[in-house]
Amino acid sequence: MEWEQAAGGFAAMGSEARLAVLRCLVRAGDGGLMVQDIRDRTGIAPSTLAHHLKLLAGAGLILQRKDGRSTYNTADYDQLKQLAGFILSECCADDVPIREVANDG
Predict the structure, then answer these.
(1) Whole-angstrom Cα distance, residue 38 to residue 9?
(2) Which residues contact 6 (CB under 8 A, 6 or more apart)?
(3) Inter-residue contact 67 to 86 (CB < 8 Å)
(4) Which part of the chain is the HTH arsR-type domain (predicted)?
(5) Cα–Cα distance between 52 and 65 in angstroms, integer?
(6) What span, in angstroms and rounded, lies between the C-alpha atoms of 77 and 75?
(7) b/e code 79-88 from CB counts within 10 Å (16+ = b)
(8) I want to staple 32 with a disulfide (CB 3.0 to 4.6 A). Which of 16, 21, 56, 72 is the partner?
(9) What is the DSSP string of the chain?
(10) What is the C-alpha to C-alpha distance for residues 41 and 81, in angstroms, rounded to an integer?
(11) What is the mean pLDDT of residues 38-45?
């Protein structure tokens, strides 16, 4: 994952409302949720929710699929795993070992 892609993904999660939507979709699993279901679970107004879903989809964090007149939204678990891997890939790389202090007493 490149820096620009990671920055876009993290930026898309950078509001409480979008994070709540994403968490709701992660909890829903592979079946996903329709917009009305997300609205019922988060309490976000329809027009605002549409805006948040658009941003999350644009960043590749959620997938949207049509089934007739319904649109189902699902978390893109592969993308979320890549983001987690990106941020954790260098965990403790610069960790400085603590030296034991000699007892002068």
Answers:
(1) 20
(2) 83, 86, 87
(3) no
(4) 1-95
(5) 16
(6) 6
(7) bbebbeebee
(8) 72
(9) --HHHHHHHHHHT-SHHHHHHHHHHHHH-TT-EEHHHHHHHH---HHHHHHHHHHHHHTTSEEEEEETTEEEEEE-HHHHHHHHHHHHTTTTTTPPPPPPPP---
(10) 24
(11) 96
